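Collaborator request, handled under Task 6.
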Amino acid sequence: MGSNQFEDIERKIWEEEKRYLMKHISLSLIRNSALKIGDYILHSGKKSPYYVDLRQSISDPIGMDWIGNSLARIVINEIGKAKVDKIMGVPTAGVPFATIVSQKLAIPMLYYRKERKEHGVRKKIEGNMERNDRIVMIDDLITTGQSVIDAAEAARDQGGIVSELVVLLDREQGGRDYIRNRSIEPHVLFEISEAFAWLKEVKLLDSNDYEVIMDYIKEEKTGMGASEPEKDEKEKA
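Structure tokens returned to the collaborator:
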């Protein structure tokens, strides 16, 4: 049995593990009202048939542990711990997740400031960052991708090497390609449509709501909602 065959088996096992983690986390998000179904207005002013607020998860220690473990497993399996010098949290929801990943993997942490502080050293990256540090960004989800790009550019300006992003979920609104086109590879635990399909399967989402949500996601994928990323992605919905 050759090494390529072993690698193929390991990839299949990892994909199975990701699906298992998606189920646990989706259930936790529903239980803790971090994933809501209904009519919502996003920060951009657009309407959405669902709302994701992963900041709700900080009040659920068990759920946070599941999320932290999942993100850490992505770093190990898809990037490699030995290839990472620093973990950087993207504000605001990405910061507590980055903290957990940093502790679990024993990799030093940084975080990005949206606004440069006007005293002291006046930097936008907090923590001990050295030139040519290989930095993995941690965020909660991808919408347009602009906040991730802002964080990456700030770290690059200070001499960091930023080419990897780890997030829990992708809203499938074009942000993933937008990030990839700026030389950052997004590593995602699951796409939101995958979670909704499973929630429908276990009868935690009714068929009518599922169809409305899938139509919305399909529309976003065609570029009707994601062609021009807003400056502030943190609508986080």
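The cover message to the collaborator said: "Residues 173 and 222 are 9 Å apart (CA to CA). Confidence is low (pLDDT under 50) at residues 224-228, 230-237. Please let us know whether this matches your experimental observations."
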